Amino acid sequence: MLELVTISLLNGIVYGLLLFMLSSGLTLIFSMMGVLNFAHASVFMLGAYLSFQLGRWVGFWPALVLAPLLCGVAGAAIERYGLSRVHARGHVAEILFTFGLAYLIEELVTMVWGRNAVANAVPAVIDFPLFHVFGSTFPAYKGLMMLISLAMFAFLNLALKKTRIGLVIQAALTHPRMLSALGHDVPGVFVLVFAAGCALAGLAGVIGGFMLLTQPTLAHAIGPIVFVVVVVGGLGSLAGALIASMLIGILQTFVVAVDYSLLDLFRALGLAVSRGSPLYELLAIKLATAAPVVPYLLLVLMLIVRPRGLLGTRDV
Amino acid sequence: MIACTRRILALGFTIACVAGPAAADIKIAFIDPLSGGGAATGILAQKTHQFYIDAINAAGGLNGEKLELLSYDNKVNPQESLIQLKRALDEGARYVVQGNGSSVALAITDAVQKYNERNPGKEVLFLNYAAIDPALTNEKCTFWHFRFDADADMKMAALTDVIARDKKVQRVYLINQDYSFGKAVAAAANKMLAESRPDIKIVGDELHPLQKVNDFSPYVAKIKAAGADTVITGNWSNDMVLLIKAGKDAGLKVTWETYYGGSPGAVTAIGEAGVDTLKQVSEWHRNAAPELDATVAAFSKRYPGKENEYAYWRAKTMWDMFAAAAKKAQSNDPVKVARAMEGMKMTTSLGDVEMRADNHQLLQPLFVSTLARNVKYDSEGSGLGWKTDAKVEGKATALPTTCKMERPK
Question: For a FRET experiment, which of A96, A111, B59, B343 has its CA 20 to 30 Å from that of B307?
Answer without folding.
Answer: B59
